[in-house]
Specification:
The protein is mostly beta strands. About 15% of the residues lie in helices and about 55% in strands. The chain has a 9-stranded antiparallel sheet. The chain starts with a helix and ends with a strand.
Length: about 160
């Protein structure tokens, strides 16, 4: 039995815990370092996406839109289908783009458990919430206890 399968089995034994709120998955990670020109070309290539972008003077909320900026971006989070991006300015006119490809799978082949979590989106006039997938993984090779080191942006939802 794999570690993820064992966690799912153990969690199913807990009273009042819905194990179906957890999704077994695999994550592929890559990162890129870009100049401003390279970043804008990369974002244009991605095309339409959903997310948010903080610039020095504003925060944009993007709903299935192409990113346009009036100033240099500081940070942002975006997604499109099963790909999630996290952008951060790292100084010296360089931006780092983290890219996570999320693939649902059965518990036998999974390396993570994804759990949806929600946070208030301060800059939303519609009182939307930010949806993230919190990714649970093993602590280390010798300690198989689950730990959540990462969450990826997964969209906007209406406040509950």
């Amino acid at each position: 039995m794999t570690m993820i399968k064992q966690w799912m089995t153990d969690l199913a034994l807990l009273p009042n815990f819905d194990v179906n709120r957890l999704q077994p998955c695999q994550i592929t990670y890559t990162q890129h370092i870009f100049s401003y020109t390279e970043l804008m070309a990369y974002l244009a290539k991605i095309g339409v996406l959903t997310g948010w972008l903080q610039e020095s003077s504003c925060v944009q909320s993007l709903q299935n839109q192409v990113i346009t900026t009036s100033t240099h971006p500081i940070m942002g989070e975006f997604y499109q289908e099963n790909t999630h991006w996290c952008l951060e300015y790292v100084g010296a006119q360089k931006w780092q783009m983290h890219e996570f490809v999320h693939q649902a799978c059965d518990a036998e082949n999974a390396t993570y458990l994804a759990e949806a979590v929600y946070h208030n989106f301060v800059h939303s006039p519609d009182r939307q919430q930010l949806k993230y997938l919190r990714l649970w993984e093993k602590t280390s090779e010798v300690n198989l206890a689950p730990v959540a080191r990462l969450a990826v942006f997964a969209g906007f939802v209406e406040s509950k």
